[in-house]
Amino acid sequence: MARIVFIGAGRAGNSRNVLAALAAVALIATGCGSAAKEQATGPVQITIWHGQTDAAAKSIEKLVTQFNQGHPEIKVNIEPGAATADGMLPKLTAALTSDAYPDIAYLYGSWAPNIARNPKTADLTEYTKDPAVGWADFWSSERAAATVEGKVVGFPAVVDNMVVLYNKKLLAKAGVEAPKPDWTWDDFRAIAKKTTDAASGTFGTTWAISGGEEAVWGLWPLIWQAGGDVLSPDRKKAVFNSAAGQQALGLLRGMAIDDKSLYLDSSPAEKGQKLFESGRLGMFLSGPWVLPDLQSAKVDYGVAQLPGTNGNHETVSGPDNWVVFKHDERRVKAAATFLTWLTAADQQIEWMKDTGSLPIRESIAKLPGYQDYLKKYPGIEVISANLANAKRVRPPTTRYPRVSAFVAEAIAQALLGKADAKTALDEAAAKADAALAVPGS
Amino acid sequence: MNSTAPALSQAAAGHRQPRDRRKLADNVAGWSFAGPASLIILGFSLIPMVWALALSFTDSDLQSPGQNVGLANYRALVADPVFFQALRNTGLLVVLYIPASLIAGLLVAVLLNRKVRGIGFYRTCFLVPYIASATSAGLLMGYIFDRDFGMMNGLLVKLGLPMQGLLSSPSQAMYVLTLIFFWTRFGFAVVIYLAAIQEINKEILEAASIDGASRWTTFRHIIVPSVRPMTVFLTVWGVIDALQFFDLVMTTTKGGPANATVTIVYYIWQLAFTYFTAGYGAAVAYVLFVGTLVLIVAGFLIARRKGVMA
């Protein structure tokens, strides 16, 4: 085999043949490129990559059809772009490199600082000043997540926040009362301990120990509640290893090691949700997106805001965006028009009823349809009200993914009993400081 | 292709055709055969290789045009503990997987090389894991090797053995992944060895049995030497396959717990698409590329010296 490779390399030295081959590649490349050329007449064609699955995909397709019928001057082409929202970033990065990118893509808010560095990302700041957009009507955490260094890169798409879902039957069986709105970390720990039953394979709750963000984002609200933060205000230093951080991770470590009430989920496949659906977890920290699944699994669930400390029940919010990419000014304008329509209250209430998403605008709660929505998703009013507890977002820096990976490692170390909370967090903070100190981006 | 040109052009001269035109026709015919494959190799292998090399000298995030940083990525790599952890994890996989797949592959191939009823079914059984998608295999195995709810620990408890950490244990997770990798890939070694065994001249085997050779002697002195070229091929193939291990990591552990199952290619993916440090990722990819090349060339040189390959 090796020989074939070397002979091939020798033949490639024949420069004329190589040139011919290169020319052919160039021809093919330009042939591909011309398909994306600007069209001069007819409706403006724009493409949206939605990254949604199941009910959400159907809902967005329905809305796009409605838009196309009502707006003959714009034709929106809808594509999934990626099989899930998780997979959107690699697909989009490849598409941007090869100039085959969409006009609009659904992207997690935590990617915005990096995406904003791409010269093909559009600046929508001017468009959001249009009164028809109602920019101030979006929640402030959403506006923060869509804005990078003063530049608006997209429209808010979905907002969520973390709550505690509990299995009413399991809690009753264990003889504990359902969480009250003013419950504390101690209550949380006690309920988890009481619902744990090794004999029947039941755990109080679960925590991810895989290497991903799913292990990390639930720790931040606990740290915030205790008065700590993720990074220093100038984002140059990690501060999550403060006393607040140790207290938060210490709580989880105590539950995992001493109480054995935490099921440690090492898989990225959301096994925790499956276990909650099958009645093996007393409580489950998650967001509104699981409600449709819980309903189809016929789980008798309740919803509570996060347990607090000193009366602070702060939660974490992860707003996602419809980010716009530049082809030409006409298409950016058409994309802004479409997104203004899509994120307007009338369309959003449809989308919310189909998917169980939370209101992305304050004014939606005043619509008549809002009551139907609340009825359709029992417990959603708690999650919706919990938006008021979503005061902060994860640090909007290009280095956040790296910092998050170090913290994920620390969480796994602590919950598996390989290190105490302080050692694990100090080690992660040292690594994060080194990563934050590298100049550039 | 070029080596045949003189002979053909002589023939062309015999037919009094203009030499150049005939040569052109040959060139067109030749390239129309070789062209598509060459384009694929050029477009999907060589150009990206050169591009990745250029990328490894920048701080590109694939979003904005990166700055040239010289060898800084390669220098950073020397001090990166996760990179060395990925090297160790991948090395462990290679060291365990290669001998296991060769031994198990050959033994199973010998067992399957018989005329028994339904042998086709048994042969298929060993190939099914190889053709199953890594996603389904990963999800399935993720459930089987779960610490608290998995069948594996259930079995251990039934046998009166202590429960293990398995995929939740930083010290065991990589071994579990190696086992899963072995299960999904060793069917390939079985097929290759089976084909090679069936190619062995029946007369030699008959002669051996007439001379009173035992089964073990036949295996040791006829089968093992006869399939040696396949052993070299499977070693090289297995090393490449193991060094590029990625998909099962993605679907079972995402590199966790605590980086216990980060492999080189998974780390490259993280660097490029999670941490937005594609330049650094390209540098790691190049180290992997050069390392793989050195291993393979060394393997062929050793094999040639031992006279296995002509």
In short:
The complex is a heterodimer of chains A (441) and B (310). Chain A has helices at 2-11, 15-34, 54-70, 88-97, 112-115, 125-128, 140-146, 168-173, 185-195, 219-225, 243-259, 271-277, 291-296, 329-342, 345-355, 369-376, 380-385, 400-415, 421-437; strands at 44-49, 74-79, 104-108, 147-148, 151-152, 154-158, 163-167, 205-208, 262-265, 283-286, 301-304, 320-324. Chain A is an alpha/beta fold and 441 residues long.
Task: Report on this structure.
The complex is a heterodimer of chains A (441) and B (310). By secondary structure, chain A is of the alpha/beta class. Mean pLDDT of chain A is 87; it is low at 1-37. Chain A contains 19 helices and twelve strands. Chain B has helices at residues 5-14, 19-55, 72-78, 81-112, 119-131, 134-144, 151-158, 173-199, 202-210, 215-226, 228-243, 247-252, 264-274, 278-305. Residues 1-14 of chain B have low confidence and may be disordered. The radius of gyration of chain B is 25 Å and the shape is globular. Chain B is an all-alpha fold and 310 residues long. The two termini of chain B are 23 Å apart. Chain B folds into two domains: 2-55, no CATH class; 72-305, MetI-like (MetI-like fold).
- For the record, what is the CATH homologous superfamily label of the largest domain in chain B? MetI-like
Total of helices of chain A: 19
Quick one: how many beta strands of chain B?
0
User: Structural class of chain A, please?
Assistant: alpha/beta
Structure classification of chain B: mainly alpha
CATH topology of the largest domain in chain A: D-Maltodextrin-Binding Protein, domain 2
First and last CA, distance of chain A: 43 Å
Which chains share the greatest interface? Answer: A-B, 49 and 50 residues
* Helix percentage of chain A: 40-55%
Bin the strand percentage of chain A. 5-15%
Tell me which CATH architecture of the largest domain in chain B applies here: Orthogonal Bundle
**Helix coverage percent of residues of chain B?**
over 70%
N- to C-terminal distance of chain B: 23 Å
Rough outline of chain B: globular
Largest sheet of chain B: none
